[in-house]
Specification:
- The termini are far apart.
- The strands form three sheets. A five-stranded parallel sheet has the order 2-3-4-7-8.
- The chain contains eleven helices and ten strands.
């Protein structure tokens, strides 16, 4: 079984109380920590990787992002999906080639760029080209940004999701969707549903998000930020 197929299989047959939890490593060391903890797969956060490289979110050069993903995949034996933002303007075939060269088994692709939602039909066309170039070698997670850069209407998110699933997306990720609307999204979206877990104590646990309809749970840059906060506290204790 290929890495992508093994990763795809992890999304199948999930029960509401057992969503797939995918920690987000930002470098090789954090990836090893999560793999050693027993997580079956990982999903890099673009913002967390950006912070580790000294960039603002969205400002990481493509070459540096793919290099960082490559370091992470080489460090662990579990499947790794890579957040590659909006694709860095790369043609679908090149994007797929670079993901595979970096060792990724999947990717996260946003339907906004520069804070502006893309035309959903045009984005669906792009996803279809990515799927055609990748075949079954990549698990495509289509991020839906209506709750970030749109009007937050769940019906608009469902409409976009339907286009992306029809284009070949394996999973849909309505990022920052309020937990209360997850059951509505679950009812209207075919296939796996990705939800974002918050680590500030102000949101449901991963298991609770699973109960609301999420198939898999990711954390965005939350884990990297928690680690940075812990390091700042340690550093403060070392100060003269």
């Amino acid at each position: 079984m290929s890495g992508a197929e093994a990763f795809r299989a992890l999304h199948r047959g999930r029960t509401p109380d057992d969503p797939l939890v995918l920690p987000g490593p930002w470098d090789a060391a954090s990836a090893r920590v999560f793999a050693d903890a027993g997580f079956p797969a990982l999903a890099t956060p673009s913002a967390g990787v950006a912070a580790s490289l000294g960039y603002e979110d969205g400002a990481t050069p493509a070459d540096e992002m793919f290099a960082a993903v490559g370091r992470i995949t080489r460090a662990v034996d579990v499947p790794v999906s890579a957040d590659v933002e909006a694709g860095y303007g790369l043609a679908p075939k090149e994007l797929v080639e670079r993901l595979l060269e970096a060792g990724a088994v999947g990717c996260n692709l946003e339907d906004s760029d520069g804070g502006v939602l893309k035309d959903p039909h045009a984005h669906a066309g792009f996803l279809a080209e990515v799927r055609a170039a990748a075949g079954d070698r990549l698990f495509v997670n289509a991020r839906v940004d209506t709750f970030v850069h749109g009007d937050g209407d769940p019906e608009r998110a469902i409409e976009r999701a339907a286009l992306y699933v029809a284009a070949g997306a394996d999973c849909v990720y309505p990022i920052l969707a309020p937990p209360a609307v997850l059951p509505l999204l679950r009812a209207g979206i075919q296939g796996p549903l990705n939800a974002l877990a918050r680590l500030d104590g102000d949101g449901p646990s991963p298991a609770a998000l699973g109960g609301l309809g999420a198939t898999r749970i990711t954390f965005g840059p939350g884990l990297q930020r928690r680690a940075a906060a812990a390091l700042r506290e340690i550093a403060g204790g070392l100060a003269p």
